[in-house]
Design brief:
single chain; CBS-domain; four-stranded mixed sheet; globular
Length: 388
Amino acid sequence: MFGRKIKLFDLLGFEVGIDASWVLLAILVVWSLAFGYFPAFHPDLSPSAYWWMAVVGAIGLFFSIVFHEFSHALVARRYGLRISGITLFLFGGVAQMTEEPKDPKTELLMAAAGPLASFVLAGAFYAIGLAAQGLGAPEPVTAVVSYLAVINAVLGGFNLVPAFPLDGGRILRAALWLRSGNLRQASRTASRTGAAFGVGLMVLGGFNVITGNFIGGMWWFLIGLFVRGAAGSSYQQSVAKDLLAGVKVAHVMTGNPIAVPPRLTLSGLVGDYFYKTHHKLYPVVDDGELIGAVTLREVSQVPEEERGTVPVGQVMQRVGPDNTVQANRDALAVMAEMQRGRSRLMVVEGRRLVGIVALKDIARYLSLRLELEGGPDARETGFERPGD
């Protein structure tokens, strides 16, 4: 669901970061508030007032989303679920769980905590707004506070819509899970509901654009597009968490990888390895010990006429925690790390090379499990099929 996460700060033991899409959201929010919302509800203010109101409103929205997600994270921690962090991305945020809830009750309480927190914030901002008006605060100040009360009420209400992965969709999944006893089946039904809701928002947005409400229609369409995509990706992640529970990297890696010595020239590497075996990464092993890795990137940075004299050991990446993983690590945790960074890692036991794991290796394992188990999951998750 996410690109590379940019860490902002730690709070109460949780790492808070933003996805690159948050920058786009911030720009869209400020623009919409400065040219749409505040001028419509508070006319006759100066352009500069609208701009600073928009910036403060966007900061308040940021705080509101963090508050919403922290409520999820705190409840999850209360019930023994590990949260790897909180990431803000386009149209919201997510408390990143490394495992699924243990039972429907935990799912229900975690999901309900977010909207409840938003409604609490809405009430708090409403009370602050009334107090500010009573004290004769300037209109721009009361306008921003009123906006934050409204946006938190909207955030809480919107998240209660029973469309996965919204909080209401997770509440729906908890109810379906309680009734059927099958988490994956409940996830599939809730995901389909979420996808249908997303399509409905896109249609509504298109209608608003056609009828002249461009800003409102644009937001509805983009939110619908996001919800539809998030429903599918959240379902995929739910299935992956289920199938990878307890699975180690050693079970999904490609064993006996082709390794090269550090004294091999780059021209030999290109002719005897890249052109023949077509891999994108080769471990570098010296006297049975892994010392690094070489990829197309390192080779391409050396002029072709010099590759006959430059050894692999001179340009290779040194072995380290950013390009290796222990064979006994949980595959699910490693997959999450790889989705935010490198797509290939060398697998080691101590300093000895035992394999290479790529995201496509994990996808093939998941696809194989789904094919063997049968059912609609194999068709709807989008995991790569074996042999593809």
